[in-house]
Amino acid sequence: MIPFNLERAESLEQALEFLDRDGTEVKIIAGGTDLMVELREISPGEKGPGTVLDITPIDEIRGIKDDGSTITVGALTPHREISSSPIILQYAPLLASACSTVGAAQHRNIATIGGNVINGSPAADSVPALVALNAEAVFQSKSGERVSLLKDIYLKPYQTDIKDDEILTAVRFPRLPEGATSSYIKLGRRNALAISRMNVAVVLVIKDGEITEARISPGSTTPTPDRITTAEELLIGKEPSEELFRRAGQAVSEEMINRSGRRWSTPYKEPVIAALTARALGEAAGEGV
Amino acid sequence: MKKLKLNITVNGQKHTLKIDPNLRLLDLLRENLHLTGTKEGCGIGECGACTVILDGRAVNSCLILAGQCEGREITTIEGVTPEDGLSPLQQSFLDNGAVQCGFCTPGMILSARALLDHNPTPTEAEIREAISGNLCRCTGYTQIVEAIQAVADGREEQQGSL
Amino acid sequence: MNQNPEIIGTSPKRVDVREKVTGAARYGSDLKMEGMLYAKVKHAEYPHAKILSVKTGRAKKLKGVAAVATAADVPGNPAFGAIIIDNQPIAGDKVRYLGDAVAVVAAETEAIAEKAVSLIKVKYKELPGLFDPRDALKPDAPLIHEDGNLIVHHKTRRGDIEAGFAAADRVIERSYSVQRVDHAYIEPEVVVAYFEPDGTLVVKGSHQSIFNIRSAVSGVMGLPLSKVRIVQASLGGSFGGKDDVMSVLSCRAGILAQQTGRPVMLSNSREDSLIESYKRHPYFMDYKVGVKNDGTITAMEIKMVADGGAYASMTQFVTWRSVVHATGPYRVPHVKTDVYGVYTNNTYTGAFRGFGSPQITFAYESLMDEIAEELGMEPLEFRRINILHDNDITATGQILDHTVSVGQALDVTTSASGWEEKRARFPKENSGRIMKRGIGLACSYRGVALGAEGVDATGATVRIHSDGSVDVATGLVEMGQGLKTIFSQIVAAELGIPIDKIQYRPTDTSLIVDGGPTVASRSTIMGGSAVKKAAIGVRERLFQAVSEKLDVAPEDLIAADEKIMLKNDPSRSVAFLEAIALALETGLNLSCFGWHLSPPIWWDEEAGKGDAYFTYVYACQIAEVEVDPETGKVNVVEVWAAHDVGKAINPDTVRGQIYGGVATAIGYGLLEDVEMVDGVTKTMNMDEYLIPTAMDVGKINAIILENYDKYGPYGAKSIAEPTAELCAPAIANAVYHATGKRIRDLPLNLERIVLGHKLIKKKRRVR
Q1: What would the DSSP string read from start to end of C475-510?
Q2: Do C750 and A275 lie within an 8 Å CB cutoff?
Q3: SS3 content of chain A, % helix, strand, coil (to 5)
Q4: How far is B9 from chain C (nearest CA, A)?
Q5: Which residue among A37, A104, A272 sits closest to C754, beta carbon to beta carbon?
Q6: If I label B27, which of B43, C243, C296, C495 is the partner at 20 to 30 A Cα–Cα?
Q7: What pLDDT, in 10s, does the model give residues C366-396?
Q8: CB contact under 8 A, B101 and C480
Q9: Tally of structural domains, chain C
Q10: Cβ A43–C118 below 8 Å, yes or no?
């Protein structure tokens, strides 16, 4: 492992102070499950971070809060805590389910949602669920707080708009609306310890047999995470049916190709994301569809 | 690289050490503390051979900087071995043919222990999930699952703590 | 006579496991020594290139570097090899794959060694590479070694192939291919090398076949065999994988130890291991089969090309096993099989659990289902028409003079799995399901031990000490399979003492004579026979002493319950301890060496015929799967695996072998692939090289069949390798049953199931 200095931040204030002084060559470590692999792969001679800033001790940005309408998940909250949280299970079950599919127990025990968000992997498990929840990302710097719609922080794969002096402190999202149902499906090569080949998160609100709200958020599909409104719009005002969900799946495939072009993996991804989307919508709509 | 001061509790024993900032928890255990029961198989948290228990939860010690463990408690395979004899999980691995080459065994036992500490009566599916981050190339996992199940079912005699 | 039969066929606790569950067992990386240096390797930067210069000056000057060695520093032969001497621990004039070393460094810490490696500058002249083995024998193919790209061509000939096809109602042709896979032992390779004051080079580490490694090190170091000691540490998995690569590591570390006069540890990272260590051979296999409408096979013509990679390694032997078994466990009167092993600039390939059988089993067992379908038969019915029976003749002309149990294996697995009912029911239920169910089978026969590929003999020493403790030494090694326990059981049985009285001596080439490699699932049948002979030998001396004391004939005595007693009157006995004292008093030697040579077998390479192995094992595995045809995901729900082992000396260990082999084959069938593009390994660690987790291996039902074999100790034959050769084709056949998709290339990954072919990723940068 290449050499670097390790600084520990005991409080958010201390961490922001440190980043404000010199944020350019600093890598932030929390759970470490992505960063440690990245550091290992830097060969001697290649440039690494001068300093690694450990934010693990900062308790103020850990934990799950619910104020009755908005749920705030501290950036340092590990995936295991999210997937077993009664608040999340009740008001954002798709996020619980997404977090339960990350890596294996060893990863979920320590890897944080903040890390999953900021690493910016197109295959991140929690991100499609957060995007389907219309989540916001909350950043702090010495100069104050910045809030952005989570999907808008992504510039390209593995790159977000986080500034050198900022820390992601939380993700927050409104509780799912009354009567909403949701689903998250992950497709990996293995049944555990798998990177998502593709995944999809959906939310449906069905009133009197008619879809009144739909959110579809696929992973490993578009260059940056997003809801696919062309597919969502197809559903609004319609009666749920297998055929309708198939068409919505198709629309997701089409949008994938619009945004990413035809690539080496498209022959596989094109039918598969359509099928996963249709299936997730079916699961969310429940029996009888 | 500035050396770092670290206070850490390993297997109930407190240590104060000066360490390199880029030292992994795995290296601290193996090199500095000579606890070589913790193994390295991949270095990227994919095989689970380096699994230890950190504040009650199973983690891959190759993915944690030693310097991140200030004030924290670590349990390694050496720490779950009673002074005379074996813990029920260790005994059960021995009795159920759950060990072949043995390289994954310490990590496997620690994942199993972390599971049983939080869920003393797991289903087979829960056992498989709990050890899914510990790769084994010899056993096909069958006898490992049976060994953990035997402890959960109380079929292995209790010899001290889990 | 068997003295203490109770312990044979039981599963006492393994003798090597207490230290493994406590973490006390010492593996290679745990062998730290005073003053030890750490080594790192400068690998090739092109898969095929002439080395013009290697500049090591800056590396040598780095603080903390003790030595930098290049090919010029190799004291003995530049290369080693089993038959063809072509594998260079440090490459001199040319690199042939990216795992070649151009230099090795020893330094005070691993970090310094790594830094030093980055300072070594090498100039190359890049040569055109050869990456597809099917191109190797073309006239314009780049030459990887001077004598041409053909490593070996084996053939099998039986009957008259043209007459065979003429007698057929139909001729069916199919092609199959299998991928390159890694052993993926959880412990990467590691050695520690140092010199004793008397000039003996000791190399401890994760060694499999210690005598093969000794001979490589002796040649490359220019030391007599007697001055090289190879000592095995606890071995963290091997599966055939820790032989040639360990020779390479041992030589590299040995050279650095010689240059520095200090102990040197060389340990591979997982990335090093994936790039450098040899793999299982990828094969391309073309089958042409003549069959009558009644289901009788009349002829098989088979051509295969095996990718040997940059060095020959075990290619001659691996492909020989393929050529012998290529027709599967079926009666085929007319056979023409040709197998070509060739060089490429890919990672070299060698031994891996199965050794030329997982490849061909995938082909011939997929093929059996395909032919059955063409004939409108059920796969089971078609196999039953053609399977081998007692006294049948194999493709190589050998008469099978033992119990041929492939039919029995088919019977028990089909009955245990509910085969007939599921074959009929699943297709009906599948129409309304997302996850389609299917069930498929595969069977095989397998020659036991080395066969006519070489002399097969091995030895063991059993010593009885004055206090009643006993120790055993063999040249065959424990690698997790349970050898120490099984050999200890044999000693306990023959001496009539409890197993805990027996100590297993270190695995060290200086302690015992060369007993061949620990390969070919030969340990129980060959090593077990040698251990038995040694134990009987030493027991006879106790009987001699006791017979004088009791005034009876030695042949009337038996050893049991820690006593030597009269067979017909157990009340007349002498305690084991007392018998030892009597023997020692009369000056008898209570150490005995047993040597076992395999029964005669032969092979005529020119004619492609012979009695290839002295006995065979038979097996059948059935896989039940669920397939998601929309995403390509396959789950193995349950497996039934029946293996004839002759006699299960330790049934728990046999089951452990079956479970492990099935899991490995599930990985082979569905997940594993060391992808190389133009000689560059793209699968660099275990996040990309995917082996099954506990959630990917379904329920496995291990079924042990026992048909006594006259050549094995207590009738035992072998297990280990056949367990890993069957599940991939069983899965492929089950996937076909579930979906109607026939996939003829492994692995059956997501893309192949959905698209029918693999996705080809664009090139990655060369390291």
Answers
A1: SS--SSS-HHHHHHHHHHHHHT--GGGEEEPP-BTT
A2: no
A3: 35, 25, 35
A4: 19
A5: A272
A6: C243
A7: 999 999 999 999 999 999 999 999 999 999 9
A8: yes
A9: 3
A10: yes
| Closest residue of chain A to B71, computed from CA coordinates | A57
Give percent of chain C above pLDDT 70: 99
Q: Lay out the sheet containing C436-447: strands in order across.
A: C436-447, C616-628, C633-644, C699-705
Please tell me whether residues A152 and A68 are part of one structural domain. yes
* Chain B residues with beta carbon closer than 8 angstroms to that of A105: 57-58, 111, 114-115, 129-130, 132-133
Name, in order, each residue with C-beta under 8 angstroms of C420's C-beta and a sequence gap of 6 or more.
C380, C414
Name the token pair of C641. 């695996």
Q: Mean pLDDT of all residues in chain A?
A: 96
Of C749, C754, C759, which has the smallest distance from its Cβ to A271's Cβ?
C754
Going by C-beta distance under 8 Å and a sequence separation of 6 or more, which residues neighbour residue A67? none
Residue ranges and CATH numbers for the domains of chain B are 4-80 (3.10.20.30), 88-152 (1.10.150.120)
Q: Do the chains contact at C269 and B109, CB–CB below 8 Å? A: no
Q: Which residue of chain B has the CA closest to C685?
A: B42
pLDDT per position as a tens digit, A104-140: 999 999 999 999 999 999 999 999 999 999 999 999 9
pLDDT in tens, C470-522: 999 999 999 999 999 999 999 999 999 999 999 999 999 999 999 999 999 99
CA atoms within 13 A on the CB side of C325: 32
CB C213 within 8 A of CB C247: yes
pLDDT in tens, A156-210: 999 999 999 999 999 999 999 999 999 999 999 999 999 999 999 999 999 999 9
Nearest 5°: the CA angle C63, C65, C71 is 145
- The answer as to whether C165 is a domain residue is no
Q: What is the pLDDT of residue C454?
A: 84
B54 to A110: CB separation less than 8 angstroms, yes or no = yes
Enter the DSSP assignment of C738. Answer: H
pTM of the full structure: 0.97
Provide the residue range defining the domain that includes C553.
Answer: 5-24+457-597
How far A98 CA sits from the closest chain B CA (Å)? 15
ipTM of this complex prediction, to 2 decimal places: 0.97
User: Are B58 and A32 an interchain contact pair (Cβ–Cβ within 8 Å)?
Assistant: no
Q: Cα separation of C410 and C621, whole Å?
A: 8
